[in-house]
Amino acid sequence: MAEIIGALASGITIAALFKTCLDTIDLIQTARHQELDLKKLVLKLKIEQVRLYAWGQVMGLTSPPDESHPRPLETCHDNIRKLARDILETIIQLFTDAQRLKDRYGCKELPPMQTLPGAQGPNLDEFAPIEKLTGSFSRLRVGTRISSKTEQYLLKTRWAIHDSRKFPALVAEVKDFVDALQNITQPSHNGPSQSETIVLHGIQRINDVETLDLVAETCASEHRVISDAASERSTSFSMTPERLEIIEDWTSGVIAEAGGENTRTDSLPTNDYIYTVPDPRSLWPESELCQHGLLFGLCPIPNCSSFQMEPRMSCEHGSQPL
After folding, report:
1. For residue 277, is pLDDT > 50?
2. Domain residues of the chain, as ranges?
């Protein structure tokens, strides 16, 4: 079957190839009565799928073509487009080589299915955190159709993790390929890339604490920025509405104060200590503060656009972030 998919992939547009690539990753599913650790491994793979989707969104591959606005990938050099295509085809091969999935990556094939991708079959299990993660990214929908032969294969084939020691190698390979796609098509700079920013915004749309905690855990070693964003988003839900309102009122007051010497502690909730908090503008440039006056990435208020930059660990004066 890998040969069939490969032959079909060689003659289609890169947008259709991108969709095929996303769909083949969906061949790995969580099975009923599967241990939580194995489901976490599938979630880790889904994180890479989300990163791939975000890259495709930046490259204009998730929407139907618009003649008036060429896809960014189409403006890249021919060699870069060819390399991107080769990488997508290689990812597809990872998930369609049955023998390799069994022997190298520790997967087992589930009985044939006749259900649509994402539907719940007799041997599959809907792992809620995965559903909530993909749901915050439009369920990874792409406005491009794939061939009927490819679709038929994807409808009938499903794999589950059998050997947890081997499967991380598959996740690592997918991660390396997604990294390569980002590196060859997006300019490097100190801040997060466009696709990374899309992922962080998607994390902010998740409203389930269990999902956020699992994402924070699974991304801790490979994607620290995503892990921190999920962890901080989760923490915001543990605060009472009253406390959130107090914090928002207090930060608004901080911004309203004139000059960097003024402080405001009268309404800031504390336990047994009183902290004197300087105006953030006296420590960091305004461009690094969110709308509530806190350093980007550290604001606890839901729906704040504070995850667009990686938080700094200390300011130029040696103080810790607010």
Report:
1. no
2. 2-187, 247-314
